[in-house]
Amino acid sequence: MAEMLANARIFIRVVECGSFTATANEFDSTPGIISRAVSTLEDHLGALLIHRTTRHLSITDVGDRYYRRLKTILADLDLANAEASGATSLPQGRIRIHSMPGLAESHMTAALVAWQEANPDVSVELKIAQRMPSLVEEGFDVSLLATPKLPDSGYMAKTLGSTYGILAASPSYLEKHGTPTSIDELKEHRLVRLESPLGPTDEWILDGPERHISISVPVSHFQANSASAIAFALRSGRGIGTLASYNIVDDLRSGALVRVLPQYRLRAFSIVALYPNRRYLDAKISRLLDFLVDHVTPTIATIHRTIEEFS
Known about the structure:
Blueprint: H1 2-17, H2 20-26, H3 31-45, E1 50-52, E2 57-59, H4 61-86, E3 93-99, H5 101-118, E4 122-128, H6 135-138, E5 142-147, E6 156-163, E7 165-169, H7 171-177, H8 183-186, E8 193-194, E9 203-208, E10 211-216, E11 223-224, H9 227-235, E12 241-244, H10 245-254, E13 258-259, E14 265-266, E15 269-275, H11 283-309
Parallel strand pairs: 3-4, 3-5, 8-11
Antiparallel strand pairs: 1-2, 5-15, 6-15, 7-12, 7-13, 9-10, 9-14
């Protein structure tokens, strides 16, 4: 195939130059080699493309039709090659991103919007789901996860930051039911459960003065698999629950929610971007990963400083 393409390009230049000698000079070759390339192409096609005399070359009817069609095809091929090569250096085309809901509902969507504004030749498709997708089979370029442990997969991983969850409730709930001052008192309250891949729904693992503490969270009167739904339930006084720092910081600032047992926090977890292991990584993917590192790390640091103000 490679030899045929090379001979086809030589044929095009012979037609346009009008002689084997001129074409040979252009390719830094010899007229004999150029003539044999055209003959090899004719043998492959089983058709005469050029009439040859000792003094003149003339293109046949078949050769003329082949030349016109071939020139268009090779031009398209060259353009496709240029676009494919440019994909590793210039962000362009579509990028499909999966994100866990808690991340997408907080600062990650804002980061993606800001990145696209700086890369207008890329269209962003964001799919939100509380699961780990199969990137290759489902056609995702990047998956944004919040996880205490990297999944066992053949994907590449870039850590964007680490954070933790905290306990919180509304001022109205605490005014009505009291504010717990110990783990034992916490167990007497209504506990709102968040279904999350970060850990079991029926257990909270807290880090605090006594190091790791496991608390059983019984079936509650409110349970959801969305951080925004849990935040709404907590603001509505449904009980005490846990939310990641990036999902709760705005409610702490506004006073809609209050930290409970601030000396405790849920076990730390990482924010990770997974992407398929590829020899040549598209520019849009590498640029996005670099942007997210630059964006997420300082954002999480700012959130943590704010959270600690409410300890």
